[in-house]
Protein: Tryptophan synthase alpha chain
Organism: Streptomyces sp. SID14436
Amino acid sequence: MSGNVRLLNDTLAAAKAEGRAALIAYLPAGFPTVDGGIDAVRAALDGGADVVEVGLPHSDPVLDGPVIQTADDIALRGGVRIADVMRTVREAHAATGKPILVMTYWNPIDRYGVERFTAELAEAGGAGCILPDLPVQESALWREHADKHGLATVFVVAPSSRDARLAEITAAGSGFVYAASLMGVTGTRESVGAQAEDLVRRTRATTDLPVCVGLGVSDAAQAAEVAAFADGVIVGSAFVKLMLDAPDAAAGVAAVRSLAGDLAAGVRRRA
């Protein structure tokens, strides 16, 4: 199953070879329904996203702002399960051939079973996992099973991370490094700011992994701004908000496809 993480690595390398940042979209599984969520992921990829992170909805998403919390709540009330997350990955990957990761808090994996989760994610064609609340020093069991199944382990770094801590985190990760552009929760912001550029610079000093920036990017201009200094631009809340505000599911999917196209143009334009 080593082809899963290789596809992610090749996709990020191809974007770099084109002289641009990769566009990474985030969408939660099961929102507004399981089928609707799959349609949205496919729309983001068809619209121009290079990679998608599929969120595993959680009842206490401490790093997520109100937009993603609302979507997670809708998905959970709809009865979404880990099997539905795997189905989302499987169907979106099969339809597009593009890399799909799962973004999840640690508790659901721990309860489900690390070996079971990694085996099923690899079987579904998943490229890896982003684990925002798993401390690197407690990640050995996860990384053992992820490596066995050819899955990337993406850790999150923040502006508050000291240089020695950055080196520890990036040494343990694979695929790419998720650089949180600012302290706080997910959500769109007026400006992504200089903090993110400094964090990318400091992170790159510790690793050859691509450094992708998330939290706060919502439009093509911001995508271009971040693409000027990062290897990837991660957009989540802006997609989810379009779906929350849409009059119906079809309109939401169309809006996701359109925004993905705008953002894809933004990462190619750069600031």
Notes: The chain is about 50% helix and 15% strand. Confidence is low (pLDDT under 50) at residues 183-189. The chain has one domain: 4-268. The domain at 4-268 is CATH 3.20.20.70 (TIM Barrel).
